[in-house]
Write a structure and sequence with these properties.
2 copies of one chain form a homodimer. Chain A has 755 residues and is α+β, with helices and mostly antiparallel strands. Chain A has a 7-stranded mixed sheet, sandwiched between helices. Chain A has a 5-stranded mixed sheet with strand order 9-17-16-15-10, with helices on both faces. In chain A, strands 20-28-29-30 form a 4-stranded mixed sheet, sandwiched between helices.
Chain lengths: 755, 755
């Protein structure tokens, strides 16, 4: 048997180079078919009536007029038996076990503005919306609460019958914080606040649904079709074999497309009712309200440090928004593990408010935590007169304190800080003149880490054809992150097949095998080893064929760049010369990624540096320069890697400076549910001066491709680095994100008043 | 390791029962999307200008006016460099090695009426046809020859420059026929003729083609997408990875859809030229002329027999039509192997004529051979005064004489004859009154065999999901024969999953693995063992999971009807209770069928019985009753099996009574290229009284499912049985098929004259 065990790559030919997307042509030319592009013969269009109040009981839904509107083919409400499907948490969805399912698809008790009340399918989208407007719904409007602190006060309007606190506070403890604070030379305490952000992907949420008999096919924009298939099958009471979800292309998710959406189930019920395909895509406004968000957090952080920079204690008390239905986000992780600290106490609570449920959002909880922890680290460093970079290096931990001090497979935080500081010219930049106004300048640093638990195995196929071309069959979606390109690179590297000779089929539960949805920066980490394993199996089988044909021992042969070579490097056979391959037309390798390391922990690390200028007359803040140094293991494709980091930095800028859901406390409605009033950063907000520094410590233990994950780390510390630079520029600690001109002016005014 | 070796099935729960099609709903309701149903956004429609002469040199093709016609987007002729693609035999197609490729996609030398000259792509089909009519082509009309005997005469018009005889006569020899004839008590010699038949599948040939960058996707109606992909890739100079052929549904082929069609390549070139998808489906008239046929044959057969019924010698001299381009059909096989005979001499020639090339047609060459051999057997039996059934049984062979007398894995010809005769009530039926006119009745028998060489291995996947449902992924097309149903039955049998919980993905080179195209009755024979092997692997993995979970030895457990049972039959776990399966969401088995038997030969056998009545005043012949007894190994699905046999009998009726291509000797044109003048049998031509008798000898050596193949055997002896019944009714040996009223009246008149 030839060798199929994966050894670490040495010199690589494809992996690590800056390679353009394999589907670049399709994406740029428009031939790529996104779910929102799908047009089926005879397709109907659907629209949803949503609750216009922060909280209300639906008294009556009169569908009579809507039914008679031109083009209307079906109207659906909670009165229809087939629509009485339990929801929140969706049956079969992650986290549904033990969760309340007190709600339904169209629940008469609407707990947030935008909750679904009825739906229409009609011949055109316009007719569907006209019919939605013709539905007469009567409401018993209830008081609502949209602020988590208000929600926990006695007498607050009840979001959930069981009370507005979701479960008991969760506590994590290490050592004794009281003792730690007693040992400290400096103890600081501060309360930090972050705002609720909306995912706003380019392609809005929606599905196209078709029934063939009792087989359901769904073109859906999501982060992994296998994450939709199972809960959808459960919702429709179908076996998995009768539900096919296809997501060949999709236009971004950032965590908001990991879960089954109500819109998909509504479309499925309407399609079954009408016997016709149904297209149901949300409007931008609907997506602001109903399909998820990064919840706001309030974080009280207390920290103790010795004069020499040794952390003695960290205590975090966190309160987070849940939205109206159970969906939790924890912010404690980095407090417990990023820096060496013997005494830690983390206590987290979450509160229901009358708003759409939160959803995983690029590094759920981590940018919030960084906002607090990294500003606190900055303040501590200042108090003890230590450079913030050195202070962080001083407290570097090479072991995972939350997991019995298991060592990391690699832990490049130190290198991220030193290499990043060097590229940023940190020391000089700190000393440079800040200017005298109205524009003042400052620099800041922040660090972070991310978890890479990998979940269930994925199964991937790689096939080699007699003309030397290949194909790759995998369940993973490509969220625009370059997954297809990265995985194809693994095939290219192992089989020596050029990228443009690799056909890719992906993200279709009907044609590919199970893998987790893309989230948690786990796709490359978990799936690239599976691809490598499949390619190695192909290689092994090709060598067996060659050995038989050449009558040589298989151990004397190697497969290099699409040809079989003997010892000494003599080329023996091209793939096209393999008679057995020509006869059977294909060699198939099936790969499953190997087990995770048992005694070690895999974590990516990051340090980011920002330079900002603040106008102390107008309150404007501009980011001038960013350096991002990441230990995410091996870089698979330098182009997509860089794009991922820049995307993360951009989101971080939004989190720091512009993005905030504004809820009206009186009506419980969202006041800025559109892209005009809710500001996401544009190209003009992103500095031209950006440096991306990959730190590769040649991790051979994390997995067989040496990869850890880059998508989420890239956005974790950005906002905190900007906040620290803001402080450096202005001397003002801005504890509440985002740093809007109004906030800045208020703080400047307060300082002026304080004198 | 649990047992994965396939043992022969014992009692079956699914296999062998009469099971309706798994895709019956889709096929009957119209939701099944056939290639001819595919509508792509922005799709153009194409049409082809074809040569209107039997043979001609194209002097000039003026496309100017066509280009200016409304809606025209591209016009293509041999003047376009990109259309100068070698053809006949298509590059990469079976049999292309060493074949002349003297022709091109649009060759200026047209050798048959209907050969391609130019093509148009336009916004609508009507505009495309209008533009085709606007093309001004000038021809140098050449003499043509449409009769194979004429073609071989000196001075005949040249179809191919190398001469009208295709290669040297091929000879097969066993023993010494001269000695055999010398030893015989009776020697008979007769010349038999069969007519050229057209396949006429319900769905006419055509493709829809789309380019994404340099990736080509083709929805094509064919008998297996992998048979189209490779030659298409070669024609377009693309790697296999860039050519995807999809054939989820198709509307019949009968051998005419095994090969790449010019229409597919024309559509691909037009689509590349216009940057838009192109649909090109032929008209019924075009399909009559250009996409294949069962060639006419002239067979001189000489046979010697002893008085006791022992065959002593068989000598066949065959001449077959090729059409205008190389494409051979041999008729000798059954002469050499169906009956025990020590002395055999087969000599076959083939001649080019000015007509479309022949193509494999349901049992290529075999019905022609049966027409001769089985009428000869009937005549010999009569001469020596032996019952035709007993005469055939007397000459039964249990070994394959053409392959060094290797035994057959099973050889049920004797059982087919005896069981068929019993069901037909043969002896009584022979003695019954024939009537006194104008309608006279008679009965006949004919036997046959078929070859099942299996070719390269196929790779199949079976997946089991945690809810107990499953999926089947296979490359094979379902030609309407029930392939999907039969293969799903194997999964159901092994895994205990009901048929409606098995999802099937098939016949897509982009999502399934290689298998041969469906032809030669090899699909069930070759692919069902692969499916079984994949299902057994799933079973083995499920047992490993169960053993680990239950902490029991795997050898103590069995997987029965979707559950794990311990020794003694105690149910231990349902599939849904397997924690490892719930974690990884799927178990995948990859199956490849095992090797063919080495020392034995696999052959299906058949005997069919017909009762006819002939009107001696009008010449009409009606089939009253048919009995078909088949040894095709195990019956997988009694319903599809029966349908296959009835379909074969129906085609046999057409071959015997109605179907004949009529070529005009003066112009070289086909005179009946439409379904009005070319008669295929309808429901009214098929007798209500049909009996299908499966003979199952429980063959455990042919493969792991015990199957041999039914599609082609079903049509092999039908026409011969009808001819023998015609003779029994009328006393007239009708040597030339089809038995039309005109032929019958001529023969009756001749007999009357002879007195």
């Amino acid at each position: 048997m030839p060798e199929t065990t994966a050894k670490p790559w040495g010199e690589t030919k494809f992996v690590g180079k800056p390679i353009p997307r394999v589907d670049g042509y399709e994406r740029v030319s428009g031939t790529a078919e996104y779910p929102s592009d799908v047009v089926l013969p005879n397709m109907l269009h659907a629209a949803i009536l949503r609750c216009p109040h922060g909280q209300a009981q639906v008294k009556r839904v009169d569908l009579a007029k809507a039914r008679e509107m031109p083009g209307v083919r079906a109207v659906l409400s909670d009165a229809d038996k087939e629509a009485q499907i339990p929801w929140y948490a969706p049956p079969g969805s992650p986290g549904s076990t033990g969760s309340p399912t007190a709600s339904r698809l169209f629940d008469p008790h609407c707990r947030f503005e935008g909750e679904e009340i009825a739906a229409v399918a009609a011949e055109t989208p316009q007719q569907a919306w006209d019919a939605v407007r013709a539905i007469r719904a009567e409401y018993n409007v209830l008081p609502s609460v949209v602020d988590m602190e208000e929600a926990l006060k006695p007498g607050a309007p009840a979001v959930q019958e069981s009370g507005n606190r979701w479960g008991a506070p969760r506590e994590t403890k290490r050592g004794d914080v009281a003792q730690g604070f007693a040992e400290a030379d400096v103890v600081l305490e501060e309360t930090y606040r972050t705002s609720c952000e909306i995912h706003t992907p380019s392609e809005i949420h929606g599905s196209v649904v078709r029934w063939d008999g009792d087989h359901l096919t769904v073109w859906d924009t999501n982060q992994g079709p296998f994450g939709i298939q199972a809960p959808l099958a459960a919702a429709m009471s179908l076996p998995l074999s009768k539900v096919r979800v296809i997501s060949h292309y999709m236009g971004g998710g950032f965590g908001s497309k990991l879960n089954l959406g109500k819109y998909t189930v509504i479309a499925a019920v309407l399609a079954r009712k009408t016997g016709r395909p149904v297209r149901l895509f949300l409007t931008r406004e609907e997506s602001f309200r109903a399909v998820g968000n990064r919840p706001a957090h309030i974080m009280k952080l207390k920290a103790g440090v010795k004069k020499d920079g040794t952390l003695t204690a960290l205590q975090l008390t966190g309160l987070g928004e849940v939205g109206a239905y159970p969906a939790g986000t924890s912010v404690g992780y980095q407090v417990g593990d990023l820096y060496r600290c013997p005494n830690v106490l983390i206590s987290e609570s979450q509160a229901f408010i009358n708003a759409g449920p939160n959803r995983a959002f690029r590094a759920p909880g981590f940018p919030q935590c960084s906002w607090a922890l990294e500003q606190m680290m900055d303040a501590l460093a200042e108090k003890i007169g230590m450079d913030p970079v050195e202070f962080r290096i001083k407290n570097y931990s090479a072991v995972c304190q939350m997991q019995q001090n298991k060592p990391y497979t690699s832990a490049g935080l130190r290198e991220c800080l030193t290499e990043g500081a060097r590229a940023f010219n940190w020391k000089d930049a700190r000393l440079r003149s800040k200017g005298s106004g109205p524009w003042v300048r400052g620099v800041g640093v922040a660090a972070g880490m991310w978890g890479s638990q990998s979940g269930p195995p994925s199964t991937v196929r790689v096939s080699l054809y007699p003309d030397g071309s290949a194909s790759l069959n995998m369940g993973a979606a490509d969220l625009g992150t370059g997954t297809k390109t990265v995985m194809a690179l693994v095939v290219a590297e192992e089989l020596g097949v050029p990228l443009d000779r690799i056909q890719i089929e992906n993200a279709d539960t009907g044609t590919t095998e199970f893998t987790r949805p893309s989230g948690g920066s786990k796709t490359v980490f978990a799936d690239s080893p599976a691809v490598r394993s499949a390619a190695l199996e192909v290689k092994a089988r090709v060598l067996e064929m060659a050995a038989a044909q050449l009558k040589l021992p298989v151990t004397d042969l190697a497969f290099q760049e699409g040809a079989i070579v003997a010892q000494g490097g003599t080329r023996k056979l091209a793939v096209r010369e393999l008679t057995q391959l020509r006869a059977q037309q294909v060699v198939v390798g099936v790969g499953v990624r190997g087990p995770d390391p048992v005694d070690k922990v895999v974590r990516p690390f990051v340090a980011q540096f920002a330079e900002v200028e603040v106008n102390i007359r107008t309150g404007e803040t501009r980011v001038l320069r960013l350096v991002a140094a990441h230990d995410s293991g091996r870089v698979m494709d330098l182009l997509t890697y860089r794009s991922q980091v820049i995307g993360g930095l951009t989101m971080g800028i939004g989190f720091a400076l512009t993005e905030r859901r504004i809820m009206d406390a009186v009506t419980g409605k969202m006041a800025n549910a559109n892209c005009h009033d809710y500001k996401i950063p544009t190209a003009k907000d992103v500095p031209a001066d950006k440096t991306v520094i990959p730190i590769d410590l040649h991790d051979t233990e994390c997995n067989t491709t040496g990869t850890k994950g880059i998508g989420e780390p890239a956005t974790i510390p950005t906002a905190a680095a900007i906040a620290n630079a803001f402080y450096h520029a202005t001397g003002i600690r801005i504890t509440a994100a985002p740093i809007t001109p109004a906030n800045v002016l208020t703080l400047l005014e307060e300082r002026r008043k304080r004198g």
